Amino acid sequence: MHRLVSLITGSLFGTGLYLSQMTDTFKVQGWLNIFGDWDPTLTFVMGGAIIPMFFAWKVVKHQNKTVLGKNIELSSRKNIESSLIIGSILFGLGWGLAGLCPGPAIASLSFGGVNGFIFLLSMLVGIWLVSKLESHKYLEI
Q1: Contacts from 106-110 at CB under 8 Å and sequence distance 24+?
Q2: Could you tell me the CA-to-CA distances from 29 to 78, 103, 104, 107, 138 in Å, in that order?
Q3: Three-state SS for 118?
Q4: By the 8 A CB rule, do 120 and 110 touch?
Q5: From first to last of its 141 residues, what are the pLDDT tens digits of the chain?
Q6: CB contact set of 40 (below 8 Å; sequence gap of 6+)
Q7: What are phi and psi of 35, to 5 degrees?
Q8: How far apart are the first and last CA of the chain?
């Protein structure tokens, strides 16, 4: 049952990303280009995600189980560390350069997006590389 719910919600999420044009790299880069020919349309997509999630987090704070009975574990961390700042900067740079972030990259795979495949492969290599550098103490984040 959990896998079916995951399949349905993942498919719904991917369809939403496609319909909202979050998988269109030119559309995303147009939205990120605030100093050039800015395209504000994705602002509504972001608002459509952020506003409901604001209320969802308020509800989740008072629950300890999901609808399917899984435990809800919220992070208690409140501090902002250098790894969060560096990761955010790298995420933003990658999003601006490629026009994709992980969710839309995976969604673009379903309709043959070669750019999404290249992005996803590069992201996985980057994750692997950082884990290796951290484990050998070459990288202190």
Answers
A1: 106/14, 107/13, 107/14, 107/17, 107/18, 107/22, 107/23, 108/18, 108/23, 110/14, 110/18
A2: 31, 16, 13, 17, 33
A3: helix
A4: no
A5: 778 988 898 888 888 888 888 888 888 888 888 898 898 988 988 898 899 999 988 888 888 888 778 888 887 888 888 878 888 898 888 888 888 888 888 887 877 667 778 888 888 898 888 888 877 776 665
A6: 31
A7: -100, 0
A8: 39
Cα-to-chain-centroid distance, residue 82: 20
Helical residues (DSSP H) of 33-81, grouped into ranges: 42-60
Q: List the chain domain ranges.
A: 2-48+79-135
Task: Note the pTM of the prediction, 2 decimals.
Answer: 0.65
